[in-house]
Automatic annotation (TrEMBL):
SUPFAM superfamilies: F-box domain (SSF81383). Residues 22-63 form the F-box domain. It comes from the Eukaryota. InterPro entries: F-box-assoc_dom_typ3 (IPR013187), F-box-like_dom_sf (IPR036047), F-box_dom (IPR001810), SCF_F-box_component (IPR050796). It holds the Pfam family F-box-like. SMART domains: FBOX. This is F-box domain-containing protein. The lineage of its organism: Eukaryota, Viridiplantae, Streptophyta, Embryophyta, Tracheophyta.
Length: 403
């Protein structure tokens, strides 16, 4: 493995002089590179050398690599500066205080819902008026960059967002429904199936085919090994039922380089199962509501598709009931990978519960009337500049919808 001295840019080595007891090389490449985005921006005021080095693209890419991947939520909030605002929140289990663990990464002046995330970017959906479809926009919460996206037509839905490594472009994977009847809208004669939209290109979505499994309904995908992976959460009555043991249980996988689809076997689990990122590999967690147990399978070998039942978490029902009274309304949960292990997040009404892999209730957070919605997306903060932003009409920085 290369040393920091070998990989740091020449400009950084040239300015690596001692300040007190630590050389700049250590301060920059061991300390500053690990800071969250806001503290790092404040550190740029220390001296010109720090500002120059921490603004360089190679440093910003290294900084992004060191950021944790955080589960995100949305919440409605009361008034601030005379505006009713909507928060995008992140949960950081490594933070020192409760306020820092569940914290706002963006405050918006309207109601937006995260649809997808990638490399510090959030794809947001804003509901339109009654009878119309949602409107999409793209933002970077760390830099307060935002731009509305030229709408794909009314009968597109978003499947995911990804970087296309061969070109450096960021792209949306869209799905045009086979059958979708909306009153008062003209019939669309274009081909149903999956499409790719390149951000900032000015080009319409490009058709790439219709895999049989695309007719299923999916949650937020997990991106690893240059692929997007989905677990089917609903499927129409058909011969291709993904839960049919005779057919095998499968993920749908999209190769983001070749932009083609394939299938991948997954563990034999119940219908109430969801996919998550297990530190660079895949995990599947399964609800057993009757026993209040969460089973977690982890992919041991990506190529051979070997799975292992690694955790069985018995929920601390008695402790949770002492706070919320009724546990029967529990539906939303998420599993996140932390330092090689896992922790479980459960939302019930206005509460968020943090549970470790032994079933111990670690923390509880009460949101009151602000509420809390779980989306399954992850945010890994980034200060890297993206060239597609200025190409989008309506692009702005530190302006609405950011407060």
């Amino acid at each position: 493995m290369e040393s920091h001295q070998a990989t740091m840019p020449k400009a950084a080595r040239a300015t690596a002089t001692r300040r007190g007891s630590l050389p700049d090389e250590i301060v920059i490449w061991e300390i500053l590179v690990r800071l969250p985005a806001k503290p790092l921006l404040r550190c740029r005021a220390v001296c010109r050398a720090w500002r120059r080095i921490t603004s360089a693209r190679d440093f910003l890419l290294a900084h992004h690599d060191h950021q944790p991947s955080l589960a995100i939520f949305s919440g409605h909030n009361p008034w601030i500066r005379g505006v009713h605002y909507h928060s995008i929140l992140a949960f950081d289990p490594r933070a020192a205080t409760d306020n820092d663990r569940l914290h706002a990464v963006a405050q918006l002046d309207d109601v937006f819902y995260p649809q997808a995330s990638c490399d510090g970017l959030l794809l947001l959906s804003k509901l339109g008026s009654i009878g119309s479809t949602s409107r999409l926009s793209i933002c970077n919460p760390a830099t307060h960059q935002h731009a509305p996206l030229p709408g794909p037509p009314w009968n597109f839905s978003t499947m995911g967002m990804y970087p296309h490594r061969p070109t450096g472009e960021y792209r949306l994977l869209l799905q045009r429904e086979r059958c979708k009847v909306v009153p008062d809208l003209p019939p669309n004669k274009d081909q149903p199936g999956c499409y790719v939209l390149t951000l900032g290109s000015g080009q319409p979505p490009r058709y790439i085919g219709w895999p049989e499994t695309a007719s299923w309904i999916f949650n937020v995908p997990v991106r690893t090994h240059d692929c997007l992976h989905w677990y089917p959460v609903y499927y129409p009555e058909s011969d291709s039922n993904p839960y049919d043991p005779a057919c095998g249980i499968k993920f749908m996988v999209f190769d983001t380089i070749a932009e083609s689809f394939r299938e991948m076997h997954q563990p034999v689990v119940s219908n109430y199962s969801y996919i998550f990122d297990m530190g660079g590999t895949l995990g599947v967690y399964t609800h057993d509501h009757s026993a209040q147990v969460i089973d977690i399978h982890v992919l041991q070998n990506y190529e051979s598709e070997v799975w292992d039942l690694k955790y069985r978490i018995k929920l601390p029902v008695a402790e949770i009931k002492s706070l919320v009274g009724d546990f029967d309304n529990y539906r939303d949960s998420d599993v996140i990978s932390v330092d090689g292990g896992v922790l479980l997040l459960v939302t019930i009404s206005e509460w968020l519960f943090h549970i470790d892999s032994d079933g111990k209730l670690v923390n509880s957070f009460y949101r009151g009337r602000d509420g809390l919605s779980m989306h399954g997306c992850r945010l890994k903060q980034s200060l890297v500049e993206h060239t597609f932003f200025p190409a989008l009409e309506g692009y702005a920085v530190n302006a609405s919808p950011f407060i």
